[in-house]
Amino acid sequence: VFPQLTEGSTDAHRWQEFTVLPDAWKNTAYGGLGQACLLFVDNHDRRGDERVWVSIADSTGATANTKYGAHNGWHARGKVDVNDPSGFVRNLNQPPGTTWDMLGVKASESLNTNAGSLGADYGNHAPSNVDGKWSFEGPSIGMLETYYKVILMVTGDLNSGILGPFSNKSQDDTRMLREFMLGGTSSDLRGVWVQGDGFVEDSDQSGVDQGNLLHNFFKLSLRDPSYFALSNVDNQCVDLQALNPITTNGDVYGVRNGCTFTNDVLTPGVGGVPASLYSPNGTALAPLVSGVFHDKNTGTGEFWLSLIDGFDIRNLRSRFCDKSIGRLAYSYNVLTAIFGKICAIAGTPPQTTDVPNNDNGSVFVDFMNLRNNPLVSGQATVDFGLAKADRVEVKVFDVSGRLVRTLADRQFLAGRHTLTWDGVDNDGRTVPRGVYFTQVKYVNSRFTDAKKLTVLK
Fold first, then answer.
1. pLDDT digits 0-9 by tens, 163-196
2. What digits encode the pLDDT tens for the residues 343-402?
3. Which of 244, 253, 362, 406 would staple 354 via disulfide (CB 3.0–4.6 Å)?
4. What is the sign of the dihedral through the CA atoms of 357, 359, 365 and 370?
5. DSSP assignment of 208-228, as one string?
6. b/e map of 2-21 (b: 16 or more CB within 10 Å)?
7. Which of 162, 68, 41, 75 is nearest to 110 (CA)?
């Protein structure tokens, strides 16, 4: 199931799914729960985005438990191995999803061999070019307007050749998205959500049509194609601060960062507002906008909502990037607070989607992480969270297992806590350079974790 070594796919599948859109079997007339209102477009086929979206849909209630595994044959909860046969599902001949249908763009990273893109129906039909033939693999605008109200497109780490038309790709994806949004009315709103760490970068540089889509429909422009380069922050994980309209809880998530992750930094235009921010700002001028939201505007006839995220869905995590539950919480908030205004996509989550945030009373989870590691100057920070009040031991050991420093051994309330270590042992002496281990142990719940900390000062 994962990974598929013989084909280089990380989508995690026991079989490939090919279906006809729309999935009419979801209609109540055929015993379904109702026609899907969201079209999930995997514009990053075989690179893992489908696997992540399926886990989000399963965990947020967008997929009913009776349809688990219909996408490609497995369903695993929590930390269960997806290759464990106990998680294999035999929903054969059933299209995936409950509130969503799926369109997979094959060979999406290729400029001249991809098939079935969103705008394939608007491809070049000129007989002199393609022998009078065209593609019906992608949806028509009539199908989109009749059956779907929201489009979710994931583009992964692609940063070129995403939306046609251009040379060697006459499929007019840009036109299809534009006409889908323009088809909205005051009583029939449309929604578009795009995630990808190179989507805005590519659209900004591809041509007039793509630029018009960014500026006049999504209400944003590209500030910089790389948060890493703009901020000079090389932390492997950086904060993602969610803003209203996603949530007013002050939630903080995590996004993987590095020179290979070209997370787009955005600039809202007229009609667009920041939906999330990267942090820290490093050497760049604040704010560093990671997502832009556009709300409907009845005065100008803009009957659509859009959210454009400058990061890859796979790289969105909980704060400190040690868990994936933050991705579930972020997606659930977007599906309910923004696109829930258009149609019901998320259902009742079978598990909690709460994540540690800014003291709003949500359920906490047990976690532990380190900051300012390696310790070159200043102090190392130990962040930890407790789901319930507990006695906590936080200790630093050297590589031989000898206790160097006890940072805490006392009762803590539920929630998030922070301790610091200045590189001094229990006798007040500065420790030599080297590798140390910081261990957190919760006495009652028996949660324990240890992370390597390198001292270089």
1. 998 877 788 999 999 999 999 999 999 999 999 9
2. 999 887 776 665 544 433 344 556 677 888 888 888 898 988 887 788 999 999 998 889
3. 362
4. positive
5. HHHHHIIIIIS-EEEEES-HH
6. beeeeeebbbbbeeeeebeb
7. 162
